[in-house]
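Hi support team,

I'm filing this because I wasn't sure whether my run with adenosine-5'-triphosphate finished correctly. The job status page said complete, but I'd like someone to confirm that the output block is well-formed before I use it downstream. Pasting the exact inputs I used:
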Amino acid sequence: MGGGYTTNPDDYSLLEEVGYGASATVYRAIYLPSKDIVAVKCLDLERINSNLDDIRREAQTMSLIDHPNVIRAFCSFAVNQNLWVVMPFMAEGSCLHLMKSAYPDGFEEAAIAAILKETLKALEYLHRHGHIHRDVKAGNILLDANGVIKLGDFGVSACMFDTGDRKRSRNTFVGTPCWMAPEVLQPGSGYDFKADIWSFGITALELAHGHAPFSKYPPMKVLLMTIQNAPPGLDYDRDKRFSKSFKELVAMCLVKDQTKRPTAEKLLKHSFFKQAKPPELSVKKLFADLPPLWDRVKALRIKDDAQLALKKMPSAEQEAISQSEYQRGVSAWNFDIQDLKFKASLVQDDDENEDTKEDDVNPTSSVNNDASDSKTACGELNSASEIVPSDEVAPAESLSNEGDAPESNMLDKGSILEKSITKTDQLPCTSDKDATQAKTRVLTGRKRQTQSGPLVAGVVLNHSKSERTRYLERSENESSQSIDKIHQVRKAPSFSGPLNLPNRASGNSLSAPIKPTGGYRESLDEKSKANLVQIKGRFSVTSEDLDLVKDIPLSTVPRRSPQDSSLRKSASMGDWIYDSNKMPIPRDNNSSSVHSNLPASFLMPHLQNLFQQTSLQQDLILNLLSSLQTAEVVEASQNGKLPPLPRTSENNGSVEVSDRERLLLTKVSELQSRLTFLTEELTAEKLKYLQLQERVDAITSREEGQKGDADA
Ligand SMILES: Nc1ncnc2c1ncn2[C@@H]1O[C@H](COP(=O)(O)OP(=O)(O)OP(=O)(O)O)[C@@H](O)[C@H]1O
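And here is everything the job wrote out:
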């Protein structure tokens, strides 16, 4: 396809490596027939949680794109286990690499304004054409030698108007956690192009500081912080250098309620961009005195690798991998759950406290964000809990002074405060990222063993009032103290822990609640709104969802093992991906008619039964989740429910502690497997329920039609 470039790999001579990410290495290359310099992005298909068709489609989309601020693919083709995407060479690489090489504390405001404005133009174009980029970040903002700015990397973009499987997969977890909007991180809540606006806001902070907020934390922790903490902003002393309009722009983008975020079109009219100079003036000088891109990238690679080489201890090595990946800002769209848990354990408390002051909490968030923001799509997060820095105690009383929130709301707030990640179990890191320096032209696949599993950590679950009250009483500080205690006992940093779960829930799903009148519904584009069938609790059932369910004849929804499930977990983060290959498809559209002749009265008891089962299973899952919380394990231990930690005078208890930890870890692993299994079952039940409901609706409307005909 396109652009006068052939799809014959022999026509390309790959030169230096000019970039690398989670799934790809990018080379400067010569297109031999014309001697054009191009960039060839070699995507390692084995590392991509997506099938070849999806990626091809993505590349095709890229090739259709025609905007000066969006990178266009000239062509793409498969080479062994790789997909090569040929695109214009952007001689100065990404903003991320530029910052890493020369501006570790970020750019000056004039350059930021130019970069953001061009990026926004790209987003406005993409959104207008129905695309969600889904991976807006400095690493994907590319610069050429003239200061021209283009948004690249459609690795994870989705088409909003697409009606096929890709649209369904919008409920999956792809992207890079630091930049991801809260609604994207909460399975099931649904998101749209406004997710890009959030990422755009995070990118603005990244350009201002040299790194994204929370970037030093492992993905799982970032995920929790994004969901639970106040949106980050430009509110610290170090941000005094920035103008009011820049701060305001960032605050407008980083509103948790997606419906309250402005569109790209609107943002372009913001006063911040009025005085933005053309990028040739403000951006070009950023790289005037720097060595060529490939030398910079090489230096960065060497730095990364040196970091790894320095640390020979297994745990330290893991830490280095974790840190370097995050510092490089790679995408984490192929998460390995075990790996995440492990990495979540690697951040030292000291770091945490320090970073908490800087990144985690936005002291003026309650000002920056619309008050109603706190009660919408993001798990009813609230300003009261959000504005309390996690390193300052937030006593229950102070919450109740926060204003006029009703009591129930306050209880939710309290429960949300229970938010630390514990770091107490030891799970093997299954990732084999080795940061190899091999500059192979054809990338060899580095298999990541990904484990399916629900994103239980990000789940916001329902608790009884007493439980919630208990959580309210247990301040965030207390919980972090208990974690500190664990750490005092446990010295080995390689021991990671079950992720502590936010303790709030609603009755019927593992995802955050969506207000029936707000959140997702309001943010749906017109087309999606038209498709909206109903909102049940937090479930927004669209006709597309029903399409999905339609494909599954009731009798063929088996109780299945996780392995052969046609609904597989996204390797990323616990959302369900529909695997059309495994899902039985009815031969004809009339296959449901057998069932649809059943009277509603016959179906109702079944529906009720299913509903009951679902609730029971949810309770069970809830219990399992609770038992996964290390804080509670510790508490129990202190209450004497678990055998006390043995100590000897010689080893001060360290050997026994390890044994005990292993024991607990085994238990945690078991529970997690059970949880995964139960979650699958639950989803199967939900699908059945939806299918039945659809049929009831069909019967009802047919009956009504018949009645109408009879009346007529
Ligand atoms: N056309 C290009 N010209 C020059 N450099 C490029 C080009 N495209 C990408 N790069 C460089 O390569 C890096 C990695 O590319 P890209 O982001 O597409 O890969 P990825 O594996 O999808 O990365 P990520 O993990 O960030 O999503 C970019 O950050 C950028 O520095």
